[in-house]
Amino acid sequence: MSELVIKDLQVSVDTEDGPKEILKGVTLTIGSGETHAIMGPNGSGKSTLAYSIAGHPKYTITGGTVTLDGEDVLAMSVDERARAGMFLAMQYPVEVPGVSVSNFLRTAKTAIDGEAPKLRTWVKDVNGALERLNLDPTFGTRSVNEGFSGGEKKRHEIAQLELLDPKVAILDETDSGLDIDALKVVSDGVNRFREKEGKGVLLITHYTRILRYIKPDHVHVFVAGRVAASGGPELADELEAEGYDKYLKAAAV
Amino acid sequence: MTVTDTDLGTDPSTARDSVASALEQDRVESHLNPPPSYDLADHPVPTGREEVWRFTPLKRLRGILDGEASDKQLRREVSLPEGVTLTEITAEQARELGELAPNDRPSALAVANAGGAVLLDVPAELEATEPVVVTLTGESADDLVWGHVVVRLGRFSKATVVLRHAGSARYAATTTVVVGDGAELNMVSLQDWDDDAVHLGRDAIRVGRDASVKHTSVSFGGDVVRMHANVEYDGPGGEAELLGLYFADAGQHLEHRLFADHNQPRTKSNVVYKGALQGQGARTVWIGNVLIRKVAEGIETYEENRNLVLTDGCQADSVPNLEIETGEIEGAGHASATARFDDEQLFYLRSRGVSDAEARRLVLHGFFNDLIRKVGIPSLEEQLTDTVEAELAKNVLDGLAPVGGAQ
Lengths: 253, 407
Known about the structure:
The complex is a heterodimer of chains A (253) and B (407). Chain A has helices at residues 46-54, 78-84, 101-113, 119-132, 150-164, 180-195, 234-242, 245-252; strands spanning 4-15, 18-30, 35-39, 59-68, 71-72, 86-89, 96-100, 143-144, 168-172, 200-205, 218-223, 226-231. Chain A is of the alpha/beta class and 253 residues long. Chain A has one domain (4-252): Rossmann fold (3-Layer(aba) Sandwich), CATH 3.40.50. Chain A has a six-stranded mixed beta sheet with strand order 6-9-10-3-11-12, with helices on both faces. Chain A has a four-stranded antiparallel beta sheet with strand order 2-1-4-5. A two-stranded antiparallel ribbon of chain A has the order 7-8. In chain A, a hairpin with a 2-residue loop joins strand 1 (4-15) and strand 2. In chain A, helix 4 packs across helix 5 and helix 5 (150-164) runs parallel beside helix 6 (180-195). The longest helix of chain A has 16 residues, at 180-195. Chain B has helices spanning 19-25, 91-96, 105-113, 343-350, 356-375, 378-394, and strands at 2-8, 75-79, 85-89, 117-122, 132-153, 158-179, 184-191, 198-207, 212-219, 224-233, 239-248, 253-262, 268-277, 283-292, 300-309, 315-324, 331-339. The two termini of chain B are 29 Å apart. The chains are: A alpha/beta (253), B alpha/beta (407). The A-B interface holds A 54-57, 77-79, 81-83, 87-88, 90, 93-100, 102-104, 106-108, 110-112, 116, 143-144, 160, 164 and B 342-345, 347-356, 358-359, 362-363, 365-370, 403-404, 407.
């Protein structure tokens, strides 16, 4: 059971010319076991939605609420949100020089679970997750995201998704910059997560390509900081054929 | 965050050993490094305005520069692998061994006042299996101690030397390391002093033909620590890696001055110093001087200094200097960066459930870990990691459990 409810979320960011409103009232409910795709043109605020839900300090929440199973997410610190069951797969994962992947994964798992994982099963779990994502076993000794190729960074994000096992995953353009093979590997990882009981997924993407591999239950068109339209998977097909023009024109009026 | 990156000429043209340039090198003096001399008159008491003294808090040196005689000693515990000897020699004998003359007042005073030197001798072709470990311990910060040391590695020998300073003293020392042709030295100088110690140290290394030297300076303790690590070459093909790690707490002054003097062709120097600062008045200084003499064709040098400022009230000075007298080199560059914790790194770690304090610990651990791994002495690596953790626990991260083990 997990339900992420976003109500009338308004978010601004500080710029040189003062605060700029980016999200202008976003309302979305990711029900238990549901996958929602958010599609939109560049600059529509898709990533802002992801990062503000995760608690990035750059963004200021000016209105609205976000709850996870009734708990007030916006009142939590960044790490409390993660421990409550939120996970953000980032578009640009950050390098942490000198910290090995295995140290990082174990530290994160310990933080999320509140206790250190049992060594024997943990090593097996990590190796299994890396292998399923086509990552070499020596990957664990490398520094987090340092010198990773674009594809390795994204696969590493999905390995974390598998191992940390959150309630709700927000995937911010996880498909961008991936070749078709890597896209399949990443999609398989996301689908394994979805197969588990009651997991929610918010899949943010610019392209419809990934939706061939991850079938969403709901598709939302995101334009100018708002959900401009919602529908089933067929909405993605329509966007594939017609693009965002219709929605952009409507938003400009 | 401020970053300076400089990359200069990469000219692969073959070096030419011309008589003219060999003659000329003797006349060229570095603009940044006063000429070495045993004569105290060449090293007057500094006013604090001199280029080489302007960063140092002279008053806190507590009279060392007055140069009073003193027969106090540091207690010495020594662990020597078979074949390596430690003996007392006279100052004259130290000179005859080809020691490098003092390059500042405290090192000149140390030679003048120490009343003889200690020689650590690794015979030619000996490959020492165990590290040489010398622990020097001071009794009191009131004791004035002069130190004079020569480390000699014979041709094709191989050794690891760990020199650890503990306790307290007002200590000024001149150390020369003469590395024979084809020899390989890994040397660590660990400044693990009590809070009130003052240490003015000069390590000068002459790298033989095709020899390689790794020198690591680690400064954690002491009130004022000012260390020189100087390197020059006795023939082509020599390589020097100069590493440093420091952690300044409230009120501490930790200064590291590097000088790579490329006086021979096809030599290499690589410098990496990393430091962290925390607490009111924590101060670090890093001066990285490189001189590429006219004769030094085909050389390669790179210097890097990174500082992580953990709290308000700290000051990190970082000054890389390059003097270049020939462009016929493989490469020369430097980088310097002084920054606070990176918000994006902390956000990434925290978005995985890791608390803010633990995220900081992890980032710092990683920052030093890269360097600690380079030191290449497993037993010491663990100790350094623990010390970094302990330093961190002092201030920023009071009362936190360690980050899930070492690796």
